[in-house]
Amino acid sequence: MKILSADQTRAADAFTIQEENIASFELMERAASAFTAWFENKFTPTQDVYIFCGPGNNGGDGLAITRLLHQRCYTVQVYLAGDPANASEDFKYNHQKLPTEIALRHVEHESDFPAIPAAALVIDALFGTGLNRTVTGLYASLINHLNQSAACITAVDMPSGLYTDKQTPTEGAIIRAKYTVSFELPKLAFFLPQHEAYVGQWHVVPISLSPTFISEATTNLYFTTAADIQHLLKSRPKFSHKGLYGHALLLCGGFGKMGAAVLAARACMRAGVGLLTVHAPAIGYAILQNSVPEAMALSDKHKNHIANLPSDIEKYNVIGVGPGMGTERVTKTAIGQLLATCKQPLVLDADAINIIAGSEKLKNQLRNHEVILTPHPKEFERLIGKSKNDYDRLQDMLEFCREYSCYIVLKGSQTAIGTPEGNLYFNTTGNAGMATGGTGDVLTGIITALVAQKYTLEEACILGVYLHGLAADLALPDVGKVSMIASDLIDYLPKAFLQVARTSA
Length: 505
Ligand SMILES: NC(=O)C1=CN([C@@H]2O[C@H](COP(=O)(O)OP(=O)(O)OC[C@H]3O[C@@H](n4cnc5c(N)ncnc54)[C@H](O)[C@@H]3O)[C@@H](O)[C@H]2O)[C@@H](O)CC1
Ligand SMILES: Nc1ncnc2c1ncn2[C@@H]1O[C@H](COP(=O)(O)OP(=O)(O)O)[C@@H](O)[C@H]1O
Ligand SMILES: [K+]
Prior knowledge:
Blueprint: H1 6-20, H2 24-42, E1 49-53, H3 57-71, E2 76-81, H4 89-96, E3 104-107, E4 121-125, H5 137-148, E5 152-156, E6 179-183, H6 196-199, E7 201-205, H7 211-216, E8 221-223, H8 226-230, E9 247-251, H9 258-270, E10 275-280, H10 285-291, E11 296-299, E12 318-321, H11 329-341, E13 346-348, H12 350-357, H13 360-365, E14 371-373, H14 377-384, H15 390-404, E15 407-410, E16 416-418, E17 424-426, H16 439-452, H17 457-483, H18 486-504
Parallel strand pairs: 1-2, 1-4, 2-3, 4-5, 5-6, 6-7, 8-17, 9-10, 9-12, 10-11, 12-13, 13-14, 14-15
Antiparallel strand pairs: 15-16, 16-17
């Protein structure tokens, strides 16, 4: 699904109003109803609700929500910050529609700020996608006042003070919401780790914006939904044989880190590779044969580290490299050889990335390959350098993808995938239980298996990251976030494939 900018969102609203020949307040009513339905489902009317409105359409939503919650027996108090004379037309319309028993209280001085009980529910409808400057003055004091309360804050569309699609200057005040309920599509700001404290948990509620507008809108930003994934998964014909599903090579493992190789290998098998060979240091040979009997094992000439490549390397149709490999000098030489000689697609992770990050010559050789790099943020920084903020980091990532003609899977809570064409895909599966050693090795195995099965590199990244997170989500009810380990992801990978296959059928 596409992620639209603030300007495109505004245009989508206008297009929908025109296309459906409705008044703009009717679309606002849809938005307010969708928010209210979410709110009703989440909170019972036993807690007092304090609603803070700005003078624009976000504030207009706040007024309509006030009316709807009042109808549903919530005790609501509503405040306006800003000049009512300059309010938007739809704000004024909804002001008139407020039931007479509800007074809109004006906040003109700090002394007008109400004390907010800890058990109260606050709805932030100060500013949405129309924010056009940093929040200062009385608005900032109000935002700080709300943030300092112990009440649960739910933001309408956007946490007030946060820009939708560009860096918010540090000096402005920003609401720290527990929940953000956004209309139709998530906003780019929700996908950036630096915004977690403001956005909280985000939810999207549909308001039937024009599908024509959305499908014709141009963007390089996407988030992956179950519906996007359905079309990707390939089915298997009855007369399938293992030769159809590729022969992958994994170069991984080292002294004390054979577990990484085992995890990557087991995940690769579970992700459907036809044949798998794992090349590891001599010390890992017996370990691999014992723990992954489905895979073939090759022993490096070096006891503890990878120092050479298999002699028949051309026969593999993809090579996954890096988990547990270390950065010994002999291993660096082997990676140099790999980049200089091999022709097949590469999936580079962990120490393979660290080794390449340390050498301009190796980095330049990326251009000669079809390659996916799967760094976590620290490996990313070694490869590309420090970025000023999360927005710049995405730009730096796309620039690197373009310059080196590669795919990057920047791992994290909402993993971002960059392509050489300049597209960015944010993943939507996964949970904090995955923040444990070895889960990245599992991802390397999955993506390598998908490339082996002739998914394009872009498909392998998108589908692999989605399935990896989905496996963790499916494991969650049984193992919980604290106890989740990387092996759980492999154990639940079959269920993840089954779930995706079911929806594609
Ligand atoms: N018909 C529509 O356009 C719809 C709009 N919707 C809502 O409307 C919102 C967008 O509404 P608007 O475009 O009116 O914008 P907002 O209500 O987000 O904010 C714009 C208002 O705030 C002022 N403002 C902006 N930044 C400020 C700052 N830093 N300090 C002080 N004042 C500031 C502007 O001068 C303007 O009065 C969405 O987020 C959504 O909540 C929804 O009701 C869906 C339908
Ligand atoms: N809080 C989180 N929410 C969702 N996914 C997470 C979270 N933390 C980590 N992950 C995922 O777990 C994996 C961790 O990979 P990585 O850091 O390479 O681990 P390792 O090197 O131990 O294998 C990545 O796929 C990342 O996206
Ligand atoms: K808001």
